[in-house]
Specification:
single chain; mainly beta; four-stranded antiparallel beta sheet; 1 helix; 5% helix; globular
């Protein structure tokens, strides 16, 4: 009987990936990171002082951000650079570039920390990229202008939102194929995953569609009507979920508000006035502070979630897009 031994390099790479996924080296820096599209930078905000502390060049048109499982690095979608930049937080510099295809906008990382899935807006495709072997593994064609990407909790399914088709594509990771197309509201943008549902924000539908995870059917819709705002200005995009899964926050774009939603009954508890074009959202680990990137007022609003009100606004570069909270 032949014995099988993996190459040492492969074994070490896999071990490293598992270590990252476990969060064994997890740490927090007490910073908020904001991608500034027009400045091509990352903006840093100190959590304790609630002040902008500086910025650093990262790539052309940085957009979506996500921390590595061990929180030592930040992945940055570089739309005009046609790659994902890997930013070392301690060294404050780019240490790697992932060639995921043209115009990546959003992405998500598998629960085991091995795969990164990116939407390529201009190519109408989803790319699967292996973070251990540093290779693009596959590409799946989807509807026009794909944006939001979300991996299921078990890592077996990837969801992609097509803005043009007003559709959520369900992709089976094993077969690398679209297995279902779900019609949602107009111009779907971002995802939020609860215990039993996938939420998708419909920018031109002024709503969030609720998709059941068991049957991938739309179970309902949440509509938003902040007081004093025109209906056409309600353009939901970014969302965030509290650590206990009970409260969702939805940025309402040009309505300049964030909606606070009860996850269990899908009722809007209230609205918080923030900056112009509330876009990307990030929540602190303890859930006490919500950070809102405002794309037209070029700032970041800090919201006290218990009081449901904005407590401070700080500068965040030009056209801030996404927010990551490392605290």
């Amino acid at each position: 009987m032949k014995s099988f031994r993996q190459p040492v390099a492969t074994t070490l790479a896999l071990a490293a990936a598992l270590l990252l996924a476990s969060g064994a080296q997890s740490r927090e820096t007490g910073q908020v990171f904001v991608s500034s599209e027009k400045d091509n930078t990352l903006v840093m905000v100190d959590v304790a002082r609630a002040e902008t502390t500086g910025s650093a060049p990262v790539c052309k048109r940085p957009r979506h951000l996500q921390l590595s499982p061990d929180r030592s690095r930040l992945y940055v979608a570089c739309s005009d650079g046609n790659h994902i930049a890997v930013w070392d937080i301690a060294a404050r510099k780019v240490v790697d570039k992932l060639e995921v295809g043209d115009d990546p906008e959003m992405f998500d990382i598998s629960p085991d920390g091995r795969m990164l899935y990116a939407s390529n807006e201009e190519d109408s495709a989803l790319t699967g990229y292996d973070l251990v072997t540093h290779r693009k593994m596959f590409e799946v064609k989807v509807g026009g202008e794909p944006e939001g990407v979300k991996v299921s909790a078990d890592g077996k399914t990837v969801y992609v939102a097509s803005e043009v088709a007003s559709t959520v594509h369900v992709i089976d990771v094993a077969s690398r194929k679209v297995v279902k197309n779900i019609a949602v509201g107009k111009r779907p943008r971002r995802f939020l995953l609860t215990a039993s549902q996938l939420w998708v924000s419909n920018e031109l539908g002024a709503s969030v569609s609720l998709i059941g995870l068991a049957d991938h059917a739309v179970q309902g819709t949440i509509e938003f009507r902040p007081p004093g705002m025109r209906a056409e200005d309600v353009t939901p995009v970014g969302m965030a979920l509290s650590g206990d899964g009970k409260t969702a926050y939805v940025g309402l774009g040009r309505a300049n508000h964030v909606a606070v939603v009860d996850v269990a009954n899908h009722q809007v508890r209230g609205y918080v006035l923030v900056g112009k074009r509330a876009w990307g959202l990030g929540l602190s680990r303890d859930g006490r502070r919500l950070y809102v990137a405002n794309g037209l007022s070029d700032d970041l609003t800090i919201v006290d979630t218990a009081a449901m009100k904005a407590v401070k606004t700080v500068r965040a570069g030009r056209s801030p897009h996404s927010v990551v909270v490392d605290d």
